[in-house]
Amino acid sequence: GRPDPSVPPSGVSCSGCGAELQCRDGAAPGFVPAEKYRNLSEGPAGAERLRAAVCQRCWLLAHYGRALRLELPPEQHRQVLSAALRRPPRHGRGPLLLYLLDVLELPDPVLPQLPGLLGPDVPVAGLLVVGNKVDLLPADGPGHLGRLRQRLVAACAQAGLRGTPLVDVRLVSAKTGFGLEGLISRLQRSWKCAGDVYLLGATNSGKSTLFNSLLRSDYCKSRAPDIIDRATVSPWPGTTLNLLKFPIINPTCDRIFRRQERLKEEATKTEDQLSSEEKKYLNHLKKQGYLVGEVGRTFQQPKSSPVVDFDPDMLSYSIDEDPKHSSRQCGEREEFTHNEVKDARWCFDTPGIIKENCVLNLLTEKEVKLVLPTLAIVPRTFILKPGMVLFLAALGRVDYLQGEKPAWFSVVASNLLPVRIATLSNADAVYKKHAGQELLKVPMGGEERMKEFPPLVPQDITLKGIGTTEAVADIKLSSAGWVTVTAHAEEELLLRAYTPKGTALVVREPPLLPYISTIRGSRITGTAAYRTKKPPSLVENLKVTGKR
Which GO terms describe its molecular function (predicted)? Predict the structure, then answer.
């Protein structure tokens, strides 16, 4: 579709990303092709149709997994966020910041920037830090969630968040629901309905997924899911472009009591007592992650299907046809009454803060889908001798230069990224021949793609082993994943790690999963690899029976 610069912006936000709908500029947020835009906006019901519409970018993300590159500089994301936080306090109190970080990205690159983003003039009432995507990481031993939480607390301390009261630190999976009922209870106990709540975090931290989960929970007003559309969710960085919001329910004593009764009743159920549809959905979640939880609703019956997606008939337009409106007339679209929202406190989803020095910024949308893990990560462990090299696709490389004994290298990355083992003598030749090709997979596109891709640059690393069952450090290869190193006690290793020029390489000590090398099968004869081993999934709020 073509733009029409003569048509003024609509003043109506896209229900998927929050950008203002417009047909003036195809490279700007909120674009709808001019002919579709006119069909939507004409007539007395035009405003209602626009409010139910999504922009071209959200349409393509939701239905085709395609991402349109927009002319939206990172600074503009920050301006939207900063302007929202600097609004005068409503209800006599500043907002609560719900900062979401991806535990795979620890140390979080954006958290230390938070004080500068807020500035001294932002009246923040509190900060609640939430570590997301814990479902993707296998349990490497008893107490692994406690160790992850300690790392989260340490990251908050290192970020220097002085002057902002830290309310709590939680671990959740916005995707599988793990930890969300506990998060909602914590918010309702400590924050109640005292003021607005802002979801903050870096791109790809899962804010929009959490927003959608909270929208269909006891945290929002009971009618909100029928009125407010879900945010667009995509692995592409920077999906949310402006503010999205839903009204927070007031957690009165009666509501808290009814909610606790529901949670108690659900905790007595076993998997055998679930309906066939609930079992099917639970098994779907188990394939997604190691930690699973159900998010229920106390004050309204849940939808018949727990998996809700965009309804094509309710969206703005099809790819190759003129807009078609559903049998449900736009005039019947539900709206909040004045009394429902006049004193409401709101939960806002904000644009993600762009991560600098991140390898994802160098990748195409197809490559991003391969690099970002969406299913439970199965660790891959290799035993290397000095003089051997490990490649993680063509995005990272670790050379074992010096050491007396073999050491174990466990890769924690998307299951779709290949790991290749080479020797120091032929590693450069392997990279030159196979980067951009199927063997190393990412980047993809052959020699032409690699001409524009930054070269790998080295960093020397010295480590001292702790023992054969406990790792000494993680070598984090930007956002492509990391390699956990386990070595004999007191064994000194000299390593050289590579990442693409302009991306961050981090040595994480202590490692995030110190006992990860124990999650492995038997050694594959004649190779450096061990067979992979996938631990079972854990369901959070169901009664455990004797059988697994």
Answer: GTP binding
The percent of residues above 70 in pLDDT, for the chain, comes to: 83
Nearest residue to 314 (alpha-carbon basis) of 193, 244, 438, 230 = 230
| Pair (344, 378) in one structural domain | no
Q: What is the pLDDT of residue 169?
A: 93
Q: Which residues are CB-contacts of 383 (< 8 A; sequence separation ≥ 6)? A: 406, 407, 408, 409, 523, 528, 530
Q: Model confidence at 540, in pLDDT bands (50, 70, 90)?
A: confident
Of the candidates 159, 93, 151, 103, which has an alpha carbon nearest to the alpha carbon of residue 123?
Answer: 93
What the block records as the tokens of 154 is: 């340490």
CA-CA-CA-CA dihedral for 38, 39, 45, 48, to nearest 10: -80
Question: What mean pLDDT do residues 395-424 have?
Answer: 97
Quote the CA–CA distance of 360 and 434 in Å, as a whole number: 20
* Percent residues over pLDDT 90 in the chain: 47
pTM: 0.81
191: domain range? 74-266+340-349
Residue 505 lies inside a defined structural domain of this protein: yes
- What's 523's DSSP letter? B
Return the bridge partners of 198, or none. Answer: 97, 348
175-204 pLDDT tens trace: 999 999 999 999 998 888 888 898 998 888
- 142-164 residue pLDDT tens: 999 999 999 999 988 888 776 67
Report the number of distinct structural domains present in the chain. Answer: 3
Q: How far apart are CA 334 and CA 52, in angstroms?
A: 11
- The CA radius of gyration of the chain, in Å to the nearest whole number, is 25
| Strand blocks (E) in 262-306 | 291-292
Per-residue tokens: 323? 């807009």
3-class DSSP state for residue 226?
A: helix
Verify that 387 and 473 share a domain, yes or no. Answer: yes
d(CA 139, CA 183): 21
More confident: 503 or 33: 503
From the list 42, 475, 84, 46, the residue with the least C-alpha distance to 244 is: 84
Interhelix angle for 253-267 vs 180-190, to 10°? 160
pLDDT at residue 217 greater than cutoff 50: yes
Alpha helices per DSSP H over 457-503:
none
Render pLDDT for 9-39 as a digit per residue (tens, 0 to 9): 888 878 777 778 888 888 777 888 888 888 8
Taking the C-alpha atoms of 334, 340, 343 and 348 in order, what is their torsion angle to the nearest 10 degrees? Answer: -40
Same domain, residue pair 171 and 41: no
Dihedral, CA of residue 385, residue 387, residue 391 and residue 397, to nearest 10? 120
Is residue 79 within 8 A of residue 350, CB to CB? The reply is: no
Structure token digits, residue 371: 């690099």
Q: What are phi and psi of 368, to 5 degrees?
A: -60, -40
CATH of the domain at 99: 3.40.50.300
The three-point CA angle 282-284-285 to 5° equals 65
